């Protein structure tokens, strides 16, 4: 199973630019490749979209699986173009261009559009073989990917269920920890560090079929830098930001959620920041519906935070405290994709999946961030996240 | 800490081709970028190697960390070239080319070499800004990366220690399983599936600071396809191939190891194949030393397997049973990198890290593969793997 791809924008582009095909040369870690081909392989393969079909060129090793799994009109293996002979005669570099040129020619493609990240080695090689290669500058495939079909929404919901289980693991560790004399949290007789909580989050995700490269469990000043993953002992009376963005190992779809907790008493100012962040999060959620721009949703979050007396990048582009990132981003096969819920963020459409994640930061107080993942609908949104919002950690 | 990079081959290439610099435009998931810059960031950044230095261009977000961590002579942030203004005036696509062109100009680079996978969008954009861009076709950086320094060897050894712990977890599960009436292995009252063993492998790796995208636990006919990850119940009297290739989450260096086990009696033919594979593995190991080619080592493994009466891709390029892959590959920041221990594999050099992994496959019997990770030395090899070879699983 894979997403049903709307090829119309790509084909409109080909027609408007008078080009014969759109070609991707990448392995499946490139989400555009994975999406357009409906196939995954660890080594680069080639997909070309023409006015009347989608065609794959794969190694012999991947041929059988590609025939069964890929969402393509045809699959060709390299050996059909005497690839070994090409390598023997021209070396691996030129052989690859000759191979792809022959494949494209068979599909009537002399002039092609390619994504910005198309390998220059392939582009220049194809040019040497007489093809014309033009970069499609807007990121059309990423744009198509931003609208999810029902099957994709189901995959993202499934990842977010795993995410909720992982967040519950983390919250329970913090809720049930003891407090040592020096203020650090202690669990089962050992100091509860950021690293330890991250490991338990990741173990929970693994047991739910998800993996992830990174997690944020950031206490006190660490949490005031949105890019700090956090390290060392977690402390009582401090804000602890937990941001989890797992990826389903099979489907490749991401989830994303952030909660902020504090054991003990983080102080009045921290509590106030939590309330303001929660208010901004709720206001931004309520502002979401098809036709509203990402920029407008971001402005709603900024309004709440500025009205409460904190800086935002809108009120002061150089501020290093306050609300110092955007309100959200698209989530799908990439953790950060279109659309953008930020200045210059365009119109939201039904099927867009976005995070809503305002936050307020200051090294002197720590960080607060609250994040849900939602799907945009005609008249509002569906919250894909089912997890309590609250500063005090609970073990239930 | 990071590897000490030998820039001489790149600088020799620049001198020979009369080019001013070698530029990488990629995020740190590109191992060449990670290696040359000594830096990791999730979004693309630019590194240029000139005759007298290594220079980085990064976002403001990464600037502080890059100044501290990168192995570079200079780090520049985008704002120094008024990047926001460039985006406002020219749009994000052209702004990026203008930004990088200005950065390159500041380092005296008008003509540049780029790797094959350099983004065509950037290459064509720089050409529009008047720079000359030439693809370096040989993969010079990957070639430099193939020779590991002592610090890198230490990182690979550390990953391989985690790998050994994970393999022990898997072996113990198989060794201590009960056998149900239908022949499936059962552990703690539940069927022991490939999926379950993989999860326990990955949990063990996580607890040792390593992650991985994939593991192979393949029983019976599944194990006869070297690319099948395995699924479903593990069975008594069948060969079970376990191939683990973890990556350290901090350093990015991979480990790699395969063992084959069987509970009960897999039969005389399976045992014979195990013995022949072990003999091929030992012969290949003994053949390794600096100055010997990867092809020669591969030939030694093929000799043993063919002498025992099994096909290899050398004896029959179209065979689908027998020894149907190469003897080994380089391992480092990528799981598959230079050098190649295969037909056309070049001369091994001290500091090369390679796998030695012969195997014999047939769907009717199952698969056998035995793999260690080793470092090439002047007069032989250092085995980076410390794990017993044996068909019968042990819980000790």
Task: Determine Rg of chain A (CA atoms, Å).
Answer: 24 Å
Number-wise, the strands of chain A total 21
Task: Work out the largest interface and the residue count of each chain.
Answer: A-B, 28 and 29 residues
Shape of chain A: elongated
CATH class of the largest domain in chain A: Alpha Beta
Given helix and strand content, the structural type of chain A is alpha+beta
The biggest beta sheet of chain A reads:
6 strands, mixed
Distance between the termini of chain A: 36 Å
Mean pLDDT of chain A, rounded to whole units? 96
Please name the fourth-level CATH homologous superfamily of the largest domain in chain A: Creatinase/methionine aminopeptidase superfamily
- The name of the CATH topology of the largest domain in chain A is Creatine Amidinohydrolase
Strand order of the biggest β-sheet of chain A: 4-3-2-1-5-6
Low-confidence stretches of chain A: none
- Helix-residue proportion of chain A: 25-40%
Structural domains of chain A: how many: 2
User: Oligomeric form of this entry?
Assistant: homodimer
% residues in beta strands of chain A: 15-25%
Distinct helical segment count of chain A: 10
InterPro entries (chains A, B): Creatin/AminoP/Spt16_N (IPR029149), Creatinase/aminopeptidase-like (IPR036005), Creatinase_N (IPR000587), Pept_M24 (IPR000994), Peptidase_M24B (IPR050659), Peptidase_M24B_aminopep-P_CS (IPR001131)
Domain Peptidase M24 (chains A, B): 154-378
Protein name (chains A, B): Peptidase M24
Keywords (chains A, B): Aminopeptidase, Hydrolase, Metal-binding, Protease
């Amino acid at each position: 199973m894979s997403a049903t791809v709307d090829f119309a924008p790509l084909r409109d582009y080909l027609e408007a630019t008078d080009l014969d095909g759109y070609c991707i040369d990448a392995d499946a870690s490139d989400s555009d490749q994975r999406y357009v081909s409906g196939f995954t392989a660890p080594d680069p393969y080639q997909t070309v979209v023409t006015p009347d079909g989608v065609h794959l060129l794969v190694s012999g090793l991947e041929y059988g699986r590609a025939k069964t799994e890929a969402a393509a009109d045809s699959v060709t293996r390299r050996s059909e173009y005497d690839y070994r002979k090409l390598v023997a005669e021209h070396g691996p570099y030129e052989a690859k261009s000759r191979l792809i040129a022959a494949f494209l020619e068979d599909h009537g493609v002399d002039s092609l559009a390619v994504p910005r990240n198309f390998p220059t080695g392939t582009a220049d090689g194809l040019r040497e073989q007489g093809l014309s290669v033009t970069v499609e500058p807007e990121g059309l495939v990423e744009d198509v990917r931003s609208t999810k079909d029902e099957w994709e929404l189901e995959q993202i919901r499934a990842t977010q269920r795993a995410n909720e289980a992982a967040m519950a693991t983390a919250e329970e560790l913090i809720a049930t920890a003891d407090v040592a004399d020096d203020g650090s949290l202690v669990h089962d007789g050992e100091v509860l560090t950021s690293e330890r909580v991250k490991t338990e989050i990741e173990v929970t995700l693994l047991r739910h079929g998800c993996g992830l490269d990174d997690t944020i469990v950031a206490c006190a000043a660490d949490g005031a830098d949105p890019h700090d993953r956090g390290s060392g002992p977690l402390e009582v009376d401090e804000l602890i930001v937990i941001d989890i963005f797992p990826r389903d190992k099979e489907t490749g779809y991401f989830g994303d959620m952030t909660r902020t907790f504090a054991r003990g008493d983080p102080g009045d100012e921290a509590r106030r920041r939590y309330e303001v962040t929660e208010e901004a999060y709720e206001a931004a959620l309520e502002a979401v519906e098809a036709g509203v721009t990402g920029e407008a949703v971001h402005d709603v979050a900024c309004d709440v935070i500025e009205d409460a007396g904190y800086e935002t990048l809108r009120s002061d582009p150089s501020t290093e405290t306050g609300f110092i990132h955007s309100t959200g981003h698209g989530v799908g096969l990439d953790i950060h994709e279109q659309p953008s819920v930020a200045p210059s963020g365009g119109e939201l459409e039904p099927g867009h999946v976005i995070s809503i994640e305002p936050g307020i930061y200051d090294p002197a107080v720590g960080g607060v961030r609250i994040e849900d993942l939602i799907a945009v609908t005609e008249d509002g949104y569906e919250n894909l996240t089912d997890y309590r919002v609250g500063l005090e950690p609970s073990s239930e």
